[in-house]
Write the structure tokens for this entry.
Amino acid sequence: MKYSIIPAAGLATRFLPASKCIPKELFPVLDKPVIQYIVEESVESGATNVVFVSGSGKEAILDHFDRINPKFSVGKLKEHVREKVEELDDMIEVISVRQKSPLGLGHAVMKGTFVIPEDEPFAVMLPDMLIFSEGESSVMQEMSTLSEKYGCSVIALMKVPAETQGMYGIAEGKELENGVIEIKRLIEKPAEGETESNLAILGRYIFTPEIVSILKNVKPGRGGEIQLTDAMVELLSKERVLGFVIDEKTHVFDTGNMEGFALANAYAALRRVDGFEEKIKNLIEK
Ligand code: UTP
């Protein structure tokens, strides 16, 4: 898999006023913008051609993955900082597509497929869903291996408490191997009692090229938006789609809302900032 699509054209209304001028995808989790973690996950899985679907006011996302502005004399930076900056220079092939109006996630992905060769499978990665894995490989790497093994689309799933089911797209299916299900049904934001399943879609997908023609024809659904889930429901009727259920060593943070963003920073700081745990404990005690 050589290509990934990162849809980043949403308006981030939940994060106003912070997102008024700065795209939420560039908010930092410690020293890196959220979207850089997502791009690194894409690169680890082999997808180094990254298609950013963005809109007005989001140009800085592209600049972040371009060569550094010559106003910084890189040679004068401390070595460990210089390394962090220089690794960005050649990390990915930056491909940019515009979604002029935010007509929905399905529409953004459809726009992204315009620049991907017809017969190529590709990943879709939501930039506000940050995944930290303590296992050996990233979620995207595992999904890529699975997609190659079975030659089909794979979507990542996480177990969620029953009372939050209605906030997600939920997948039902039967177990194929440990941590992998063959999906039989997808329900977007189910009403109470509509499904027994607690497996929620979390924002990582690998699609076969079959999805492209479906996306071009899918009609606006919930909220008048073109929904990716509606396209996936149709894909299910044509092809096998697998669900990869993440394990307990994998932590997902929805950085598109305040709580998820704060938790992601706390988690990263606990792992990377010396003495952070002690300091936060002291702060809580005070
Ligand atoms: P969200 O609905 O979570 O993000 O879409 P949002 O619209 O930016 O945020 P709020 O709800 O207004 O606070 C999930 C992902 O899909 C992208 C968003 O950028 C986000 O990464 N998206 C959504 C698009 O690219 N285009 C769209 O038309 C809708």
About this structure: The mean pLDDT is 94. Residues 155 and 205 are 4 Å apart (CA to CA).
